[in-house]
């Protein structure tokens, strides 16, 4: 069997219609739209990962936002969570600019790849367990192809759990099973996982996650990368 490429996985993700509830919701949102984006054409399809194919850092989220990734076609692009995340990526040197508004805005990631456990926006940001499990093979395929990944930042407990489920299909997990927490660190095989609160407005507006806290997580990731892998190139 021929080895899949990231472009082939992207095409498979975009074409997926495996979860009827999510298909209905993402298309409904794309048709109804939000008033502020009434003149825009929504993506309305599953949202693939993106970034540097030689990345050593993987950033994993929950799912696209209804009026963010589901509108723009790029995860974390065009919403407040992305504003917070991309600003931190820029400060840490992983992104060439601090904002991301649409797919053609010139954003480039260096040594970083961003993905999600679920590729369609779910109602109330809550995928079912069955929807999660149908989607996780895409993440497993990305991990197999992103051969330089040595550190992953999991944005929220859902991403932490989803990534551990994927890693359990690739090899044994530590015992006891690593628990999520902001700043939690776990080693699974050759991969280091770092837990981070999700940069949702619920967390950033309340101060549960601050710029300094997010910067510290990226600094921690850079330390692991520099200690465990040769320079990017």
Topology of this structure?
Blueprint: H1 6-15, H2 20-32, E1 50-51, E2 57-61, H3 69-72, H4 80-91, E3 112-116, H5 129-145, E4 151-155, H6 157-170, E5 185-188, E6 191-196, H7 201-204, H8 211-228
Parallel strand pairs: 2-3, 2-4, 4-6
Antiparallel strand pairs: 1-3, 5-6
Provide a count of the helices.
8
Main sheet record: 6 strands, mixed
Order of helices and strands: HHEEHHEHEHEEHH
Class, according to the CATH hierarchy?
A: Alpha Beta
Helix content: 25-40%
Q: What percentage of amino acids are in beta strands?
A: 5-15%
Radius of gyration from the CA trace? Answer: 17 Å
Tell me, briefly, the overall form. Answer: globular
What is the second-level CATH architecture? 3-Layer(aba) Sandwich
Structural domain count: 1
Termini separation:
29 Å
- Strand neighbour order, sheet with most strands: 1-3-2-4-6-5
Number of E-state strands: 6
* CATH fold label: Uracil-DNA Glycosylase, subunit E
As residue ranges, the low-confidence spans are none
Overall average residue pLDDT = 95
Specify the structural class.
alpha/beta
The CATH superfamily is identified as Uracil-DNA glycosylase-like domain
């Amino acid at each position: 069997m021929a080895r899949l490429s990231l472009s082939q996985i992207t095409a498979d993700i975009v074409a997926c219609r495996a979860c009827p509830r999510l298909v209905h919701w993402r298309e409904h949102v794309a048709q109804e739209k939000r008033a502020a984006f009434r003149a825009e054409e929504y993506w309305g399809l599953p949202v693939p990962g993106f970034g540097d194919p030689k990345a050593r850092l993987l950033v994993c989220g929950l799912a696209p936002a209804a009026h963010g990734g589901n509108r723009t076609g790029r995860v974390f692009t065009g919403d407040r969570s992305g504003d917070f995340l991309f600003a931190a990526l820029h400060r840490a040197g992983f992104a060439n600019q601090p904002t991301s508004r649409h797919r053609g805005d010139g954003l480039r990631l260096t040594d970083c790849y961003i993905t999600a456990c679920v590729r369609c926006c779910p109602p109330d940001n809550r995928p079912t367990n069955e929807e999660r499990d149908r989607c996780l093979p895409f993440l497993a395929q990305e991990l197999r192809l992103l051969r330089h990944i040595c550190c992953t930042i999991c944005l929220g407990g859902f991403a932490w759990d989803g990534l551990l489920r994927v890693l359990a299909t690739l090899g044994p997990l530590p015992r006891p099973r690593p628990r999520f927490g902001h700043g939690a660190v776990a080693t699974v095989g050759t991969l280091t996982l770092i837990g981070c609160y999700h940069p949702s407005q619920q967390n950033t507006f309340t101060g549960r996650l601050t710029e300094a806290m997010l910067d510290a997580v990226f600094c921690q990731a850079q330390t692991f990368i520099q200690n465990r892998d040769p320079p990017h190139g």
